Amino acid sequence: MRKYEDTYRHKGLRKKLMDILREKGITDEAVLAAMNNIPRHFFLDSAFDEIAYEDRAFPISEGQTISQPYTVAYQTQLLQIKPLDKILEIGTGSIYQATVLAEMGAKVFTIERQKGLFEKTRNYIFKSKYLNLKFFYGDGFEGLPTYAPFDKVIITAAAPMVPPKLLSQLKTGGKMIIPVNSAIENEHQRMLRITKNADGSTSEETFENFSFVPMLPGKQV
Ligand code: SAH
User: Fold this and answer.
1) How far is the CA of 79 from the centre of ligand 1 (A)?
2) Virtual CA dihedral for 193, 197, 202, 208, nearest 10 degrees?
3) Percent of the residues in the chain that have a pLDDT greater than 90, as a whole number
């Protein structure tokens, strides 16, 4: 059994990481407070214990990654979370991003397409702490029609386009944060924030470029 310890050293490194995120331009103190409260090293293999608070992505299992803290902070800031917001996340992965949203008081529905990663959510360390976080095994391109509509949708994998079903599961006035592949190369994605207007149309804002693992169709057993 893995031993989970959040030492003073970890807490100190985490505080420093929050300063780095501030220097990189993250201004939403509610996002930083949530990230400062969550031991990121719990979401990584214990081999990464010493480096868990570097501003880097790391491998998790099944060839996937835990997003870089800057990326998590950036996407979360763009979401403009309000307590009790109903949020759909595509790409559960390590559960770190979903935990940040749950810590901020949102109701989080997160989908993972890889069976192995989904099964790991059964042993989620904060299961009894965040009753506002629910896990689903499925294809994120389909969303969760049964639980729709959502206030916000966040996609944490590189999307080939804006999935129409996810847009239809967004409330009027709702927002989607999505990294979309650029037309010329798939190595980088442009972060978009899409707002659904009252007349059914959408407005689009463009932000920085990021690099995510691909959003893939279908479930993987
Ligand atoms: N939010 C995660 C990031 C994980 S990386 C974290 O905080 O760690 C992206 C994840 O998206 C991977 O686990 C990958 O398996 C998953 N993914 C890719 N395509 C998907 C899809 N269509 N539906 C659901 N999950 C998907």
Assistant:
1) 18
2) -10
3) 93
Kindly report the protein residue whose alpha carbon is nearest to atom 17 of ligand 1. Answer: 91
3-state secondary structure of 94: coil
Pocket test residue of 112, 118, 126 for ligand 1, highest count of atoms within 8 A of CB? 112
- Parse the chain into domains and list their residue ranges: 8-210
Confidence of residue 187 (pLDDT cuts 50, 70, 90): confident
Q: Which helix (H) or strand (E) holds 118?
A: helix 115-120
Range 134-158 average pLDDT: 98
Give 7's DSSP letter. -
| CATH number, span 8-210 | 3.40.50.150
Digit-coded pLDDT (tens) for 84-142: 999 999 999 999 999 999 999 999 999 999 999 999 999 999 999 999 999 999 999 99
**Contact assessment for residue 167 and residue 196, using Cβ atoms and an 8 Å cutoff:** yes
